[in-house]
Design goal:
Order of helices and strands: HHEHEHEHEEHEHEHEHHHHHHHHH
Distance between the termini: 88 Å
Radius of gyration: 32 Å
Mean pLDDT: 83
Structural class: alpha/beta
Shape: elongated
Helix content: 55-70%
Largest sheet: 8 strands, mixed
Low-confidence stretches: 1-34
């Protein structure tokens, strides 16, 4: 690396560009640097990610140089502490270079092959779609620059996260590469930026790292589909029983029940079935281990996937229960409910209907009490599924909450059944 003292304090091209982009006045780039001994990091590319990365590196105490094919055009977009120069100048000065250009433009970096020899290249690119076969962008970059050490990293972090800091996004940075020294230098840079580096292995794992930002809720598809199917089944059953049957048999038009009442009756049924699906795979796994006589054999694929989706099924159950609570609060606000109460009041005033039914009163009180307790237990399930809460308790405490909640919910269901029989 050239001596920093040999470089001029004011660059002629920078002063000209600064005058064009900021209304005149030279830019004293080197004088604004905090410390000449700070590490020097190069960035190839001038997009949004490059600008956010440059700002984050500056905040962490790094010297940053940015390479562009037209440096005078983009010099005004970067902070004054950042030097925007040609790509050849950047790679000749920096030992660690971020390649922040689109993969289809990697071929434009071929003239830098000799200057990038024995240097660390950090590939931050992503693909346009999920790829199962490969090769990855990082592997293609390594083939293009065989004498350089390519590390795949920072592709799972957005420009917004880099600009605002890791507190507003994921703190983990997945990285992979064939050079231990190169990965170590990138990991050190991650820690200095406030992130947590996660080494996922050799550069052959780059395809999996590039696919991470392209997944769309991979663990939620089956639970959400199961929730929709259960809701559709119970809604169709309740619609046929409470709306369609009175209309067909007695000619009574109660289709106004469809948006609120039928949905409200459907949600708790779906919530209870989803909750049973949370604990059923554990029982199936225990029974299978007892039948096999060992716990060291792998579960079937369907059971393994079911066990991994229990958290999502529990959260879907909580969603249905919470919506049921909201719908129940809305029931008295409907116009049809007001008309029904008025009709009941007129019947009681005329003596045609009984004014007080102890059985109905007790039934409603018990339903509300048990429903509130069940919702509270499901809320506990949702809270303990948060990573921040789950990491704060040990395994015994977590198991106590899970098993205790399951027993309490079963007892509540038994109480509901006994009260129904009593009345």
């Amino acid at each position: 690396m050239p001596d920093d003292m040999s470089r001029p304090l004011i660059r002629d091209d920078g002063g000209a560009a600064g005058g064009e982009g900021r209304g005149g006045g030279s830019r004293r780039l080197e004088a604004s640097l905090s410390d000449p001994t700070d590490p020097l990091v190069g960035i190839l590319g001038t997009g949004d990610f490059s600008r956010s990365l440059a700002q984050r590196l500056l905040a962490a105490g790094y010297q940053v140089v940015v390479g562009s094919r037209t440096p005078k055009r983009f010099v005004a977009l970067f902070p004054e502490e950042v030097e925007v120069m040609s790509q050849m100048e950047v790679v000749s000065q920096a030992d660690l270079v971020f390649v922040a250009v689109y993969p289809e433009h990697h071929s434009t970096l071929a003239p830098l092959k000799a200057a990038l020899a024995r240097k660390t290249l950090v590939d931050v690119s992503n693909g346009l779609r999920l790829s199962r076969d490969g090769p990855s962008n990082a592997e293609l970059l390594a083939d293009m620059f065989p004498e350089s050490c390519v590390v795949k990293a920072f592709n799972t972090v957005s420009a917004w996260t880099l600009q605002t800091g890791p507190r507003d996004g994921s703190r983990q940075i997945f990285l992979c590469g064939d050079s231990l020294q190169a990965k170590s230098s990138v990991a050190q840079l991650c820690r200095r930026l406030g992130f947590v580096p996660v080494d996922v292995g050799l550069l052959s794992s780059a395809l999996d790292v590039e696919n991470l930002p392209l997944h769309l809720f991979p663990c939620w598809r089956a639970p959400l589909l199961c929730t929709l199917l259960l809701f559709a089944f119970f809604y169709a059953y309740n619609f046929a029983r409470d709306v369609l049957q009175p209309y067909v048999k007695h000619g009574k038009n109660v289709f106004h029940k469809m948006p609120i009442e039928t949905v409200n009756v459907t949600l708790p049924s779906a919530a209870l079935v989803l909750l049973s699906l949370v604990y059923l795979p554990g029982l199936c796994a225990a029974a299978l281990q007892l039948c096999r006589g060992t716990k060291y054999r792998r579960f079937p694929g369907w059971l393994d996937r079911w066990l991994q989706r229990r958290k999502q099924l529990g959260l879907c159950s909580f969603l249905c229960a919470a919506l049921h609570a909201v719908y129940s609060l809305v029931l008295p606000m409907r116009k049809s409910a007001h008309n029904k109460l008025l009709a009941m009041a007129l019947k009681q005033a005329s003596g045609a209907a009984e004014s007080y039914s102890e059985g109905e009163v007790w039934r409603m009180e018990l339903y509300l009490s048990v429903g509130i307790m069940a919702l509270g237990l499901l809320s506990l399930l949702a809270v303990t599924s948060l990573p921040s809460v789950a990491n704060a308790v040990n395994w015994r405490e977590f198991s106590f909450i899970q098993e205790g909640r399951r027993i309490w919910l079963l007892q509540l269901q038994e109480q509901i059944k006994r009260k129904k029989k009593a009345f």
